[in-house]
Amino acid sequence: MRFSSLPTESVRASFPPLESGPRAVRALAKAAAEAAMAVGRVANAVDRAATLVATALCNERRLLFLGAGTSGRLAVLEATELWPTFRVKADAALAGGQKALVRSVEGAEDDASAGGMAASALRRGDVAVGVTASGVTPYVDGALRMARRRGAATILVTCNPRTKIRAGVVVALATGAEPLAGSTRMNAGTATKIALNAITTTAAAKAGKTWRNRMVEVLATNAKLRDRAKRLVQELGEVTASQATRLLRETASAKEAIVMARLGCGAGEARKRLKRGSIEAAIRP
Asked: What is the DSSP letter of 252?
């Protein structure tokens, strides 16, 4: 393989010297903004990926993010953030293992068999999300091959529109050459993070884990989040602050408390109604 032909390995033409101070900073910011626009250009693919993830969430199936290097760390970050944001349990596999989170493990990305092993417990109905900026990472290719063999749905997020890695949905971000040639932690990393955010956030919304653009699944584990939960119940439940506080004493779930407030019912009835899939469905007659 000629790695020099990869978009992420190319040299960005007409970019100012990185030593040029404020001029370089402005150019870097502009390049990052352009990378972000790449996500919007593949909105349909992002939405298809979100639908696969939402289906898995609704059926309580496994969601696995995989990658190597910067892409792998972004995969781990996405999986980690889903529980406190949406109460969604997700797993992540990083080439080189946990130590690769803080220190580069050279060569780990070339191990396709390790990727396959990471995905070997997947089953039909599960979803594997492979993340590779270059679009040629053997670890990710091996993982998605195994996921398909196991009957799982597959998603690939890459910054190489010419990737040969197969997946049910390919989110190909045309971010082009990096300001620092080959450094995919820059534009590719920015676009990848935005794409992952878009996939999981819209998937959670499709699965009824948001309501009116609010984090109704919030875990109230600290002072800030307890206050947020109270405000959510007060605003969306259309009750006073003291009523919201009382409802949150009866249930630890802001989502349940909102339904209780809207319908004047108890926690058990709210929980039963939420099995319909969303707050909107739960409060319908």
From this structure: S
| Domain residue extents for the chain | 3-206, 223-282
Q: Which CATH architecture has domain 3-206?
A: 3-Layer(aba) Sandwich (3.40)
Is residue 72 within 8 A of residue 94, CB to CB? The reply is: yes
The CATH class, in words, for 223-282 is: mainly alpha
End-to-end alpha carbon distance in the chain: 61
Spatial neighbors of 78 by CB under 8 A, at least 6 apart, are 65, 90, 92, 129, 193, 196, 197, 200
Whether pTM exceeds 0.85:
yes
Q: Which residues carry out catalysis?
A: 81, 109
Which neighbouring-strand residues pair with 264? none
The closest of 123, 124, 127 to 57, measured between CA atoms, is: 127
The yes-or-no answer to whether 3-206 and 223-282 have a common fold is: no
For the segment 110-118, the average pLDDT, to the nearest whole number, is 97
pLDDT tens per residue across span 136-163? 999 999 999 999 999 999 999 999 999 9
What DSSP designation does 4 have?
A: G
* Amino acid identity, position 87: R
Token look-up 């009116």 returns: 212
Instruction: Provide the mean pLDDT of the chain.
Output: 94
HEC string of 154-214 equals EEEEECCCCCCCCCCEEEECCCCCECCCCCCCCHHHHHHHHHHHHHHHHHHHHCCCCECCE
What percentage of the chain carries pLDDT values higher than 70?
98
Strand order in the sheet with 91-94: 91-94, 63-67, 127-132, 153-158, 169-172
